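Reader question, answered in our methods column.
A reader sent in the components of a multi-part assembly and asked whether the whole thing could be modeled at once rather than chain by chain. We filled in our standard form and ran it. Here is what they sent:
COMPLEX SIZE: two components
ENTRIES:
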Amino acid sequence: MSAARETPDALKGTLRTSALLVGRGMPAVVLRVVILLVGAVIVLVPWREGAGVGTLVVLLPAVIASVYAPASPAPAGVVVSAAVLVTLSGGDPLRAEVLMLVPLVHLFHITCGLAGVVPVSGRVHLSALRAPVLRFVSVQAVMAVLIGLAAVLPTTRTHPLVEALGLAGLAGVAVLVIWLQRVK
Amino acid sequence: MNRAREWFKARRAARTEGWRRTDALVRAVVCGLGLVTVGMLFHRLELVLVGLPLVIGLLLTPAPVGTPTVVSRPHPDTVDAAVDATVAVTVAPGEGAAFTALRMPMPATPGTGPVHLLPAVEGEVRTKAVWQAWGHSIYLRPDYLFAGQDGLYMFGPVVGVAAHHTVLPPVDPIPPGPLPPRAAGLVGAHRSARPGDGMELRDIRPFRSGDRLRRVDWRVSLRAAAASDGTLAPGTLHVRERHAEADADIVVALDTRLDVDRSVEQWNARTVGADTRPGGSLDLGVRAASSLSAMFLRQGDRVGLIDLGHPRGGVPVGSGRRHLQRIRHQLVHTARRVAGSGDPILNQAQVPKGATVMVLSPFLDDELVGLVTRLTRRGGLVVAIDLLPAELTPDRTTPWGPAVVSILRAEHEVRIRALEEHGVVVLKWESGPPVGALLRAVRRRRRS
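And here is the structure of the entire assembly that came back:
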């Protein structure tokens, strides 16, 4: 399928290089299908860990609601319930299920964000997805470093000072986020 | 107090105007920061790990600024059908925008098209367009919405300004044919039956008083002189007589009262998104009228248009390229007003004396047959072009469907036979219309 692509070389003499030639793209329903697939895998993770009731009562309906209405509070329900269900299952915090959930929840969040700005009858062009894919990979690379760091850190009781510093740092991050997200 | 009111007013305006936060941003802040905070407080690394990518995404996303705009490029109001064109809009997304959701036509597909999710690039966004269907339509309405990274912010949606245009009916090449000349014509491209100053030889006859000397055929005259006594006496002089060349008028009468296609079930249904049924009798009639007008105007004839459904919908006879454009515009205009069956209206004053009349209709009523047969009494050539589809599909919603089609067919055949008995030349408008050959045949028949 052809996506919106940059102007062919033959036309570059007459057009600005930033001109986009709109092709057919792919149907925007593909984004909903991705949400459904990623959501299905997210559902499977706590299900395999034995959290059957919570998965069926909270997570599965939230995933279905997210497919129907990605620009709604439903995806938030998926993020929170998946994290809580996996945490309540217990076990090693760096086990495979948790490590699998980290990129899946992030991908679910991004896909819902994109599906929320384009109608289901619209068309999505691959050139539009290049930047979000790069961002996703970058964020996950940072996460891989942080997870590696967490894996080598001692699991003994944390010093209260370190914990206080951590909480202060979190407060700083919260302030920074709120500062950055001011709409000018 | 006033400052507080202003602040609340500004907050309310921020929720509907300009860049605003989306559910994705709320989700990232509440879920991301919330999970990280709860995870740190309760020493649960799983919560921190799940929430952290959302927080990192937030830290990497500054709020967009500026007012994005989408401006459509001016485009001609009138275009020819089936001609490649480019529709373009200029996009200025502003700082921090990552996506443009823009309604643009699909390549080579009519209509305003779906919403395309594109990268937010400053510059022109173009799409290639080919309008196959003629008529008046909206070809571009660039509704737009801009979004920040990960869809965390959005601007819009804003409804774009609709751009209208008229797609003129296409002109298909038709082999030309000779028309009967107008009786009162003095000049033109067609050979008339009368003697005159044309190019085509009519006869060689003895010289008469008043003949021009340049008309003398010296070869015949010398031969005639040799056959008598060898002297060039007045009785031996012969002159070449030529045909006069005269103008020809043609009137194309289009039946706009009915628009029927192959499926009888759809005859009463309203067309959606178009003025006419694609491939229906009116579509076919408009295309045929456009092509016929172009053919005859190209060979220098005078062409007029009659709208059988509306007495004021015609175009008087005229000639030239501008006249062809006028006829094509009028065809688009008249075809927009299909308003059910009524009596056909043809004012005798609309048909010049000696004009050839071409009636384009599916011939589904007797009134039109009566009108066409009355036209033949004026002495001009009348050609009926039958636009009823060759095969009709019965209405499947009623058991009477096949019977209705049989009756329609039988009545239609009776009408066509009645037209032929009154001297009307009837032909079907199909691929490769044999109008030129037909006109030549009619002419030969009339001469003999």
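What stands out: The longest strand of chain A covers residues 5-6. The CA atoms of residues 159 and 165 of chain A lie 10 Å apart.
Send us your own complexes using the same form.
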